[in-house]
Predict the 3D structure of the following.
Amino acid sequence: MSNANPPDSSARSSRALGWCGLIALVIYAVFLAWNFSAVAGGADSSGYLNSARLLAAGQLTAELRTPPEFGPQTALRRDQFQPQGFAPFDGNPRLSPTYAVGFPLHLAVAGKLLGWSQAATAVGVVAAVAALLLLYATARELDVPPGLAASGAVMLGAYPVFVFTSIQPLSDTLATTWCLAAFLAAWRARGHPAWAVACGLALAAAVLVRATNLLLLPALVVIVGLDLRRLGLAVIGGLPGALWLGYYNHALYGGALRSGYINLAEAFRWSYGAPTLLHFLQWLAVMLPTVLLVLAVFVFRRGGWRDRRRLALAAWFLPFFILYTFYEFSQQVWWGLRFILPATPALILAGLLGIESLLARRDGFVSAVRIRTFAAAGLAAWSLGLGWFWTQKYHLLLIKTYEQAYADAAQAAVALLPKEALVLASLHSGALYYYTSFPVLRWELVSPSEFAAFRVLASASGRPFCAVLFDVEEREALQEKCPGEWTQLGAVRNISLWQLAPAPLATLE
């Protein structure tokens, strides 16, 4: 006998899509975790992890390590002894982390719960997976069908810039996640005002992770509108984060509105605009499906600006895009696109709405369902192909290997260098501060005459002078800036460890 009430085919399709999505997310999470570099390496990763370890210990600032024979720290150029990822400030005898506090706070909590060996990986993977889920949920709230919404999540997950920032300790993926959370909460607050509290909290978290995420505020206002109740609830949600940020900035940098980026204003110039604009458009067009840019523009034709969804997406994407168009570092490399990563979901969502706009005006005989299915599958396949190509071309999956060299070199320094050594370092300075107790001297910030004076003082007290350098640093560091009789003690891949002969006796008298 046939079933009088057969299961709804759309329900079966939704369940199948849900299971496929869950399996894909698990595979993606394993992929990220397997390739994640949890090392305190260069300025960014060591800066975040050094700051996180301070927060976990209940401290905000770090000790400035200087040899006592060099005299009081107040008489020294403190920047010459500061590791990368830190900055000295007048009136503060200790080192202040350069980077925003939000990402280190997440790392500190994870470090307490999971241990430091797993903290960075856990935060990075959870943030990335959450971003994909939030993009899908946001697309659905904007009335994008499930298949297309899923393809949007695939586009973000396969985006090489997103992969780049999701497999190492960088704040960009987490910043993107909190921006998506704030946008979604704002949209839901239109029907349930209590969501406005979550919106304020998420925006505060986003700003703690990166101050320029405040640029999301116009989009949130477009969504929430001028409803005083919802705005008030959003302020309540964001107030604790704002108070903490003000306290932190005042304690470390001397003002609630100051930050660790001392000369940030100098990094923005009108002259950067034209070349950075071309740089952004070029790389967006080849790292995301090119048609996405066309669809994102198309969505604003014929009254698109009167649609709250589209206006909110424009108010999200454009402020980030415009600001970083004039930023010095945006145009230097392809991954300069990470500066606008927190707004990239808006571009993807606008493209998906562009497909829906096209379908609303179609006159053909092919069903809208088939077109959506074809478009979703095509965009997903296109994105995965681009992701694979660029990931291979730029060796993104070797980042873990490259970064591990910092930790290996620090371990070699502990084994090979004398315990009381003063270590000449630049690119390795943050890693040495994290993994060892050595004081460092930043070779690029000293003149030959200053180095000669430091060498005499160190030799007179019996302190060994050593160096940890990449091969590309050796000539300038050991021959031009800090010349002397250097002897190589060992090497780790393209990193060498050196010791300097004591200063001649005549200079010690």
